[in-house]
Amino acid sequence: MNTLTKTCFALPLALALSAGTASALTVTALDANVTSSAFVSVSGGASASTSQTGTWTNPLDPLSAFTDVTTFTPGGAFANAGSTLSANFVSAAQGSFGIVDAGWTSSSDITPGSANLIGSGFYYQFSLDDAARLTIDFDIFADAANTTSFGLQGVVLQELAPGVSGQNLANATDPSVTTTLIYDLAAGVYEIDIDLVSNVSGGVPKFSQFDGTIDWEIEALNAVPLPAGMVLLLSGAFALYGLRRRKT
Questions:
Q1: In 17-175, which ranges are E strands?
Q2: 3-class DSSP state for residue 238?
Q3: CB 3.0 to 4.6 Å from 201: which of 114, 149, 209, 236, for a disulfide?
Q4: Number of H helices, E strands in the chain
Q5: How far apart are CA 16 and CA 69, in angstroms?
């Protein structure tokens, strides 16, 4: 077979081998932190607040933050607020955030009173050297033992970058949400910035908490699938080439 003929068959072979595969994507972890904040106040008692932030010592280290703050009425009744938050990273392109016991409790339904978790949340900043798809799976649920879920609200995903909108997943009466958000992103720097927006006033319920898991993954987006017609054409070309080889 002459050089031209070899090239004609080598080209479709190369196309077939590369079809549908994505070029290497580099995801670089830039920064991350987890913050748990809590505030609680009751009539006649001192308000109390606390905050804890977990930051990286080394990139992709697991992170955690915990708060548990309590105040008392003059009669000895208590109200408490807090949460345990965590972040784990499989790689710069995959990880999860965890929420445990986020909310408030009291010895009885204390009125008046207020509590909030404002300032709590997760932050992860990363860069992409090529187009990519970010998938974020939310599975957040109110505790089955809640006397009420009013005010827990849930979470809000802030914008990922200027012009890349987030999503408000909060609900005043129930924080529960199970949904998947998908973003197709160009090369650049982005943030996964998720806030807990729990806030109640007028009284602190006896038991009101929620939990959840937020999984996220980044995958290359520039795979170019081979059209079905081209697959048939290449298959025929390879078959003819094989037949010719057997005859010669």
A1: 27-42, 48-55, 63-72, 78-91, 94-106, 113-116, 121-128, 132-142, 155-157, 167-168
A2: helix
A3: 114
A4: 2, 14
A5: 62
Q: Would you give per-residue pLDDT tens digits along the chain (248 residues)?
A: 554 444 444 444 343 333 444 469 999 999 999 999 999 999 888 899 999 999 999 999 999 999 999 999 998 999 999 999 999 999 999 999 999 999 999 999 999 999 999 999 999 999 999 999 999 999 999 999 999 999 999 999 999 999 999 999 999 999 999 999 999 999 999 999 999 999 999 999 999 999 999 999 999 987 555 555 544 444 554 444 454 444 44
The answer to whether the CB of 86 falls within 8 A of the CB of 93 is no
Q: Which residue has the tokens 């479709």?
A: 12
Residue pointed to by tokens 């009466």: 173
